[in-house]
Automatic annotation (TrEMBL):
GO molecular function: DNA binding
UniProt-recorded name of the protein: Site-specific recombinase, phage integrase family
Organism, as annotated: Colwellia psychrerythraea (strain 34H / ATCC BAA-681)
Top-level taxonomy: Bacteria, Pseudomonadati, Pseudomonadota, Gammaproteobacteria, Alteromonadales
Keyword DNA-binding: yes
Core-binding (CB) domain residues: 57-141
Signal peptide: none
Keywords, in A-Z order: DNA integration, DNA recombination, DNA-binding
Keyword DNA-binding in annotation: yes
């Protein structure tokens, strides 16, 4: 039988009780939650009570699930680049799904989010956000936190594979107008078939006798990129960047720190603009296209290219192999 409140306590919220020193909330789920001391306004007691109720209501929310996932070993074990991407996707995903009960998210909600995201940010970003959400829900499903994964069955947008091949003439124009930072970074990326992030984070301790040791930030693949005269020249260009400054990074700023995305992008854009004005070429390729040029120009079959690039599958390598091959015509070899 529920205990009747005293007349002076009838203003208090449900399941809130007064002890000798504080107001305490006892939720139906059990336990006790201290709200505040006794020397506060009644309105504050109600406000704190409502806040706790909202928190309990959101215990099974997508936001609560995200908190658990981003503290899990599954997230921590992911490659640094993947972790960074997931944290970047988190904001928009929480805006769309954060307050929803994890078992009330349906495929139609995921589809609606993807359609809106595609209009706002493009189909590539919509697909990446969906992949992250599906991965998080898969983690929850395997641990019995949800009954079904609402992302399963929701189709991604069809993305056109990038096929831009940087010609030798365009690449030389880039080098001719590049500052030491971009020259060194471009050559290292091209010759080692490396991503920009791996080049930006390259440390001097990775320059070893046999070559350049690179652990890919995206895949975790470990390789030693063999020295060549041209690769050594690229490193010598890197040494021209703030030579009086001591730094652990191969390519570094005036204060010794490595280059971040914004600082590097500004130099890249300036270099491309100078080359464009000087040559009249479109110069419409990206830094990441240099890795594709390296794979395309590497002499060997697809399996040899895959091994050199550090790809997991032949398909990945084939997507990067963009050079148009010359094939014989009828009787051309007669």
């Amino acid at each position: 039988m529920t205990q009747q409140r005293k007349a002076e306590e009838k203003w208090m919220p449900p399941r809130v009780y007064k002890t000798k020193v504080a107001y305490v909330f006892q939720p139906k789920s059990g336990g006790k939650i201290r709200l505040c001391g006794l020397d506060v306004a009644k309105s504050l007691v109600w406000m704190l009570y409502e806040k706790e109720c909202a928190s309990l209501d959101n215990f099974n929310s997508v936001a609560s699930l995200f908190e658990k996932f981003f503290l899990s070993a599954s997230f921590i074990d992911k490659a640094p680049r993947t972790q960074k991407d997931y944290l970047g996707y988190k904001k928009d995903l929480l805006i769309a799904f954060g307050k929803m009960d994890i078992n009330k998210v349906e495929p139609k909600h995921v589809r609606m989010f993807m359609d809106k995201k595609a209009v706002k940010s493009g189909i590539s970003q919509a697909n990446r956000h969906k992949s992250a959400l599906q991965s998080i829900f898969s983690w929850a499903y395997e641990r019995g936190k949800i009954k079904v994964n609402p992302c399963v069955g929701v189709k991604k947008f069809t993305e056109k594979a990038r096929d831009r091949y940087v010609t030798d003439v365009e690449y030389q124009a880039l080098l001719n107008h590049a500052c030491p930072v971009i020259y060194a970074a471009a050559e290292i990326s091209y010759l080692c078939m490396a991503r920009r992030g791996d080049v930006e984070r390259l440390r001097k301790e990775q320059l070893i006798a046999d070559g350049i040791y690179i652990k890919q930030g995206k895949t975790g693949k470990k390789q030693i990129k063999e020295w060549s005269p041209r690769l050594k020249k690229a490193i010598s260009h890197a040494n021209k960047v703030n030579p009086s400054i001591s730094s652990m990074y191969v390519i570094h700023q005036f204060n010794g720190s490595g280059y971040g995305t914004n600082g590097f992008r500004d130099r890249w854009v300036s270099t491309m603009e100078r080359a464009r004005k000087s040559t009249g070429y479109l110069m419409d390729f990206t830094f990441h296209d240099l890795k594709a040029k390296g794979i395309s120009d590497f002499e060997g079959n697809l399996e040899e290219k895959r091994n050199a690039a550090g790809h997991t599958t032949i398909k990945q390598t084939a997507d990067y192999d963009r050079k148009t091959h010359i094939v014989p015509t009828v009787k051309s070899r007669n």
